Amino acid sequence: MVITASRKPGVINKKGVLVIDTIYKSIYPFRNNLTIAGDQDGNNMVLLDTAGKRITPPAGIQDANALKAYYEKIPVNERTKGHLIDGRYLVDMGNGITLNVRHGDAYYMDERKYVLWQFAKTADLPHHYDIDYQLMGYYPIKDDPAPVYHCKQALPSGVFSLTVMPDIREAENGFSNAGGYRTILANRSGQAITFNTYDHGLLMRMQAKTNTGDWRDIEDIARGCGNGFSDMTLRSGHYLHLTSPAYSGAIKTKLRLRFTYVSYGRSHTIFSNEFDGSINPGQLWRSEWNFPSTDYLRP
Protein backbone atom coordinates (compact mmCIF):
# COMPACT_ATOMS: atom_id res chain seq x y z
CA MET A 1 0.00 0.00 0.00
CA VAL A 2 1.25 3.49 -0.81
CA ILE A 3 0.03 6.80 0.55
CA THR A 4 0.22 10.01 -1.50
CA ALA A 5 1.13 13.38 -0.04
CA SER A 6 -2.60 14.15 0.05
CA ARG A 7 -3.09 11.00 2.19
CA LYS A 8 -4.98 9.06 -0.46
CA PRO A 9 -4.15 5.34 -0.47
CA GLY A 10 -3.33 3.13 -3.44
CA VAL A 11 -2.05 -0.41 -3.93
CA ILE A 12 0.94 -1.61 -5.95
CA ASN A 13 1.79 -5.24 -6.74
CA LYS A 14 5.17 -6.93 -6.32
CA LYS A 15 6.27 -5.66 -9.73
CA GLY A 16 5.65 -2.06 -8.67
CA VAL A 17 2.57 -1.70 -10.89
CA LEU A 18 -0.23 0.46 -9.50
CA VAL A 19 -3.23 -1.91 -9.44
CA ILE A 20 -5.56 0.22 -7.30
CA ASP A 21 -5.27 3.90 -8.13
CA THR A 22 -5.23 6.65 -5.51
CA ILE A 23 -8.84 7.63 -6.19
CA TYR A 24 -10.30 6.07 -3.07
CA LYS A 25 -10.50 7.80 0.26
CA SER A 26 -9.83 4.64 2.25
CA ILE A 27 -8.71 1.07 1.50
CA TYR A 28 -8.96 -1.78 4.00
CA PRO A 29 -6.28 -4.48 4.42
CA PHE A 30 -6.74 -7.50 2.14
CA ARG A 31 -8.57 -10.53 3.46
CA ASN A 32 -8.27 -13.64 1.29
CA ASN A 33 -7.35 -11.48 -1.75
CA LEU A 34 -10.32 -9.14 -1.29
CA THR A 35 -10.58 -5.62 0.10
CA ILE A 36 -13.18 -2.89 0.41
CA ALA A 37 -12.54 0.73 -0.47
CA GLY A 38 -14.33 4.06 -0.24
CA ASP A 39 -15.42 5.09 -3.73
CA GLN A 40 -14.59 8.55 -5.04
CA ASP A 41 -18.19 9.08 -6.17
CA GLY A 42 -20.83 9.41 -3.49
CA ASN A 43 -18.65 7.91 -0.73
CA ASN A 44 -19.83 4.38 -1.56
CA MET A 45 -17.98 1.26 -0.47
CA VAL A 46 -16.87 -1.16 -3.19
CA LEU A 47 -15.42 -4.69 -3.15
CA LEU A 48 -12.08 -5.11 -5.01
CA ASP A 49 -9.73 -7.96 -5.82
CA THR A 50 -5.91 -7.79 -5.93
CA ALA A 51 -6.01 -6.49 -9.52
CA GLY A 52 -8.21 -3.56 -8.48
CA LYS A 53 -11.23 -5.03 -10.29
CA ARG A 54 -14.65 -4.44 -8.77
CA ILE A 55 -16.27 -7.63 -7.55
CA THR A 56 -20.04 -7.97 -7.33
CA PRO A 57 -20.86 -8.76 -3.68
CA PRO A 58 -23.26 -11.59 -2.80
CA ALA A 59 -26.99 -10.99 -3.15
CA GLY A 60 -28.60 -9.15 -0.27
CA ILE A 61 -25.73 -6.73 0.33
CA GLN A 62 -27.25 -3.35 -0.45
CA ASP A 63 -25.28 -0.76 1.55
CA ALA A 64 -21.85 0.05 3.00
CA ASN A 65 -22.62 -1.42 6.43
CA ALA A 66 -23.70 -4.75 4.94
CA LEU A 67 -20.59 -4.83 2.72
CA LYS A 68 -18.37 -4.13 5.71
CA ALA A 69 -20.08 -6.93 7.66
CA TYR A 70 -19.42 -9.32 4.74
CA TYR A 71 -15.76 -8.22 4.58
CA GLU A 72 -15.24 -8.76 8.32
CA LYS A 73 -16.47 -12.36 8.00
CA ILE A 74 -14.12 -13.29 5.12
CA PRO A 75 -11.85 -16.11 6.41
CA VAL A 76 -8.28 -14.99 6.92
CA ASN A 77 -5.11 -16.77 8.03
CA GLU A 78 -1.39 -16.15 7.70
CA ARG A 79 -1.45 -17.34 4.07
CA THR A 80 -4.40 -15.18 2.97
CA LYS A 81 -3.72 -12.19 5.22
CA GLY A 82 -2.68 -9.06 3.33
CA HIS A 83 0.31 -8.31 5.57
CA LEU A 84 -0.29 -4.64 4.85
CA ILE A 85 -0.28 -5.51 1.16
CA ASP A 86 2.85 -6.97 -0.45
CA GLY A 87 4.95 -6.03 2.57
CA ARG A 88 5.29 -2.32 1.80
CA TYR A 89 3.44 0.42 3.60
CA LEU A 90 4.71 3.93 2.90
CA VAL A 91 3.90 7.11 4.81
CA ASP A 92 5.59 10.28 3.57
CA MET A 93 7.32 11.90 6.55
CA GLY A 94 8.82 14.72 4.46
CA ASN A 95 12.40 15.43 3.30
CA GLY A 96 12.51 12.11 1.44
CA ILE A 97 11.91 10.05 4.60
CA THR A 98 9.21 7.37 4.64
CA LEU A 99 7.82 5.18 7.42
CA ASN A 100 7.55 1.56 6.27
CA VAL A 101 6.35 -1.78 7.57
CA ARG A 102 7.70 -5.05 6.20
CA HIS A 103 6.89 -8.48 7.64
CA GLY A 104 5.48 -6.76 10.71
CA ASP A 105 8.63 -4.67 11.39
CA ALA A 106 8.47 -0.87 11.19
CA TYR A 107 11.39 1.27 10.02
CA TYR A 108 12.32 4.66 8.54
CA MET A 109 13.95 4.75 5.09
CA ASP A 110 15.46 7.54 2.98
CA GLU A 111 15.34 8.17 -0.79
CA ARG A 112 18.33 5.86 -1.35
CA LYS A 113 16.32 2.98 0.23
CA TYR A 114 18.70 2.95 3.22
CA VAL A 115 17.11 2.01 6.54
CA LEU A 116 17.77 4.89 8.92
CA TRP A 117 16.20 3.38 12.04
CA GLN A 118 14.14 0.28 12.80
CA PHE A 119 11.72 -0.35 15.64
CA ALA A 120 12.43 -3.28 17.93
CA LYS A 121 10.99 -6.52 16.57
CA THR A 122 7.73 -7.59 18.14
CA ALA A 123 6.25 -11.04 18.57
CA ASP A 124 2.89 -11.76 17.00
CA LEU A 125 0.10 -11.67 19.56
CA PRO A 126 -3.18 -13.55 19.23
CA HIS A 127 -5.15 -10.38 18.56
CA HIS A 128 -7.76 -10.01 15.87
CA TYR A 129 -7.42 -6.32 15.01
CA ASP A 130 -4.14 -6.12 13.06
CA ILE A 131 -5.21 -3.02 11.10
CA ASP A 132 -3.75 0.25 9.83
CA TYR A 133 -6.78 2.51 10.32
CA GLN A 134 -8.90 3.74 13.22
CA LEU A 135 -11.91 1.74 14.29
CA MET A 136 -14.96 3.63 15.51
CA GLY A 137 -14.95 4.19 19.27
CA TYR A 138 -18.28 2.55 20.02
CA TYR A 139 -18.49 0.21 23.03
CA PRO A 140 -21.74 -1.76 23.37
CA ILE A 141 -23.00 -2.34 26.89
CA LYS A 142 -23.07 -6.12 27.26
CA ASP A 143 -25.28 -6.46 30.36
CA ASP A 144 -27.58 -4.44 32.60
CA PRO A 145 -25.92 -2.61 35.54
CA ALA A 146 -24.91 -5.05 38.26
CA PRO A 147 -23.77 -4.61 41.90
CA VAL A 148 -19.97 -4.36 42.19
CA TYR A 149 -19.86 -7.30 44.59
CA HIS A 150 -20.83 -9.48 41.61
CA CYS A 151 -17.58 -8.48 39.87
CA LYS A 152 -14.80 -10.95 40.68
CA GLN A 153 -12.04 -8.48 39.75
CA ALA A 154 -10.71 -5.72 42.03
CA LEU A 155 -12.07 -2.26 41.20
CA PRO A 156 -10.88 1.19 42.40
CA SER A 157 -12.79 2.37 45.46
CA GLY A 158 -14.33 5.80 46.07
CA VAL A 159 -14.35 6.90 42.42
CA PHE A 160 -16.08 6.59 39.04
CA SER A 161 -13.58 4.38 37.22
CA LEU A 162 -12.83 2.65 33.93
CA THR A 163 -10.78 -0.56 34.12
CA VAL A 164 -9.41 -2.59 31.20
CA MET A 165 -8.42 -6.19 32.03
CA PRO A 166 -6.10 -7.41 29.23
CA ASP A 167 -5.60 -10.76 30.99
CA ILE A 168 -9.29 -11.60 30.53
CA ARG A 169 -10.03 -12.21 26.84
CA GLU A 170 -13.55 -11.91 25.46
CA ALA A 171 -15.30 -11.66 22.11
CA GLU A 172 -15.34 -7.95 21.27
CA ASN A 173 -19.02 -8.08 20.30
CA GLY A 174 -21.54 -10.48 18.85
CA PHE A 175 -21.36 -8.84 15.41
CA SER A 176 -17.71 -9.36 14.57
CA ASN A 177 -16.69 -11.89 17.24
CA ALA A 178 -13.24 -10.28 17.23
CA GLY A 179 -10.84 -10.54 20.14
CA GLY A 180 -11.13 -8.12 23.04
CA TYR A 181 -10.48 -7.43 26.72
CA ARG A 182 -12.97 -7.33 29.57
CA THR A 183 -13.66 -3.72 30.51
CA ILE A 184 -15.58 -2.43 33.54
CA LEU A 185 -17.13 1.03 34.08
CA ALA A 186 -17.74 1.12 37.83
CA ASN A 187 -19.34 3.73 40.07
CA ARG A 188 -18.01 3.60 43.63
CA SER A 189 -18.12 7.38 44.09
CA GLY A 190 -20.93 7.41 46.65
CA GLN A 191 -23.39 9.18 44.35
CA ALA A 192 -25.34 8.36 41.19
CA ILE A 193 -23.74 9.48 37.92
CA THR A 194 -25.70 10.22 34.72
CA PHE A 195 -24.09 10.13 31.27
CA ASN A 196 -24.99 9.76 27.60
CA THR A 197 -25.32 6.43 25.84
CA TYR A 198 -25.74 5.84 22.12
CA ASP A 199 -27.70 2.84 20.85
CA HIS A 200 -27.09 1.11 24.19
CA GLY A 201 -23.37 1.72 24.02
CA LEU A 202 -20.73 4.22 25.12
CA LEU A 203 -18.73 6.53 22.87
CA MET A 204 -15.12 6.17 24.02
CA ARG A 205 -11.71 6.15 22.37
CA MET A 206 -8.65 4.00 22.82
CA GLN A 207 -5.42 5.99 23.05
CA ALA A 208 -1.78 5.05 22.45
CA LYS A 209 1.30 6.62 23.99
CA THR A 210 3.78 7.94 21.44
CA ASN A 211 7.56 7.89 21.73
CA THR A 212 7.40 11.56 22.82
CA GLY A 213 5.14 10.70 25.76
CA ASP A 214 1.97 12.14 24.23
CA TRP A 215 -1.33 10.27 24.16
CA ARG A 216 -2.98 10.03 20.72
CA ASP A 217 -6.39 8.67 19.79
CA ILE A 218 -6.26 5.44 17.76
CA GLU A 219 -10.05 5.27 17.41
CA ASP A 220 -12.34 7.71 15.63
CA ILE A 221 -15.58 8.98 17.10
CA ALA A 222 -18.54 6.79 16.15
CA ARG A 223 -20.68 8.26 13.37
CA GLY A 224 -24.42 8.32 12.92
CA CYS A 225 -27.52 10.46 12.69
CA GLY A 226 -27.52 11.43 16.36
CA ASN A 227 -31.01 10.06 17.05
CA GLY A 228 -29.77 7.19 19.21
CA PHE A 229 -28.71 9.23 22.24
CA SER A 230 -30.25 8.63 25.64
CA ASP A 231 -29.27 9.13 29.29
CA MET A 232 -28.22 6.40 31.69
CA THR A 233 -27.86 6.76 35.44
CA LEU A 234 -25.41 4.40 37.11
CA ARG A 235 -26.03 4.16 40.85
CA SER A 236 -23.11 4.04 43.24
CA GLY A 237 -22.03 0.49 43.95
CA HIS A 238 -22.89 -0.70 40.42
CA TYR A 239 -20.93 -1.34 37.24
CA LEU A 240 -21.32 -1.88 33.48
CA HIS A 241 -19.66 -4.71 31.56
CA LEU A 242 -18.02 -3.67 28.26
CA THR A 243 -15.36 -5.16 25.98
CA SER A 244 -12.40 -3.25 24.51
CA PRO A 245 -10.98 -4.33 21.13
CA ALA A 246 -7.60 -6.07 21.25
CA TYR A 247 -5.12 -4.54 18.79
CA SER A 248 -1.93 -6.01 17.35
CA GLY A 249 0.69 -4.24 15.27
CA ALA A 250 4.32 -3.46 14.54
CA ILE A 251 4.83 -0.94 17.35
CA LYS A 252 4.69 -1.87 21.03
CA THR A 253 3.32 0.86 23.29
CA LYS A 254 1.08 1.66 26.22
CA LEU A 255 -2.68 1.89 25.68
CA ARG A 256 -5.58 3.32 27.67
CA LEU A 257 -9.25 4.22 27.26
CA ARG A 258 -10.65 7.76 27.42
CA PHE A 259 -14.31 8.36 28.30
CA THR A 260 -15.67 11.91 28.08
CA TYR A 261 -19.22 12.47 29.23
CA VAL A 262 -21.56 15.30 30.20
CA SER A 263 -23.34 15.04 33.54
CA TYR A 264 -25.70 17.77 34.75
CA GLY A 265 -24.33 20.23 32.20
CA ARG A 266 -20.65 19.70 33.03
CA SER A 267 -18.09 17.84 30.95
CA HIS A 268 -15.96 15.18 32.64
CA THR A 269 -13.20 12.90 31.39
CA ILE A 270 -11.90 9.72 32.99
CA PHE A 271 -9.09 7.44 31.81
CA SER A 272 -8.62 3.74 32.29
CA ASN A 273 -5.53 2.05 33.63
CA GLU A 274 -2.57 1.87 31.23
CA PHE A 275 -1.74 -1.53 29.76
CA ASP A 276 0.72 -3.02 27.26
CA GLY A 277 -0.33 -3.35 23.63
CA SER A 278 0.78 -2.80 20.05
CA ILE A 279 -0.53 -0.83 17.07
CA ASN A 280 0.24 -0.02 13.43
CA PRO A 281 1.24 3.54 12.38
CA GLY A 282 -1.94 4.21 10.36
CA GLN A 283 -4.05 3.93 13.52
CA LEU A 284 -2.69 7.27 14.66
CA TRP A 285 -4.28 9.24 11.85
CA ARG A 286 -6.38 7.30 9.30
CA SER A 287 -10.10 7.07 10.00
CA GLU A 288 -11.98 3.83 9.29
CA TRP A 289 -14.39 5.74 7.02
CA ASN A 290 -12.40 8.93 6.38
CA PHE A 291 -15.37 10.52 4.63
CA PRO A 292 -16.12 14.25 5.03
CA SER A 293 -19.71 14.65 6.15
CA THR A 294 -21.89 16.32 8.72
CA ASP A 295 -21.19 14.36 11.86
CA TYR A 296 -23.72 14.87 14.62
CA LEU A 297 -21.76 12.77 17.07
CA ARG A 298 -18.63 14.91 17.13
CA PRO A 299 -18.43 17.04 20.30
Automatic annotation (TrEMBL):
Protein name: WG repeat-containing protein
Domain of life: Bacteria
Species assigned in the record: Chitinophaga pinensis
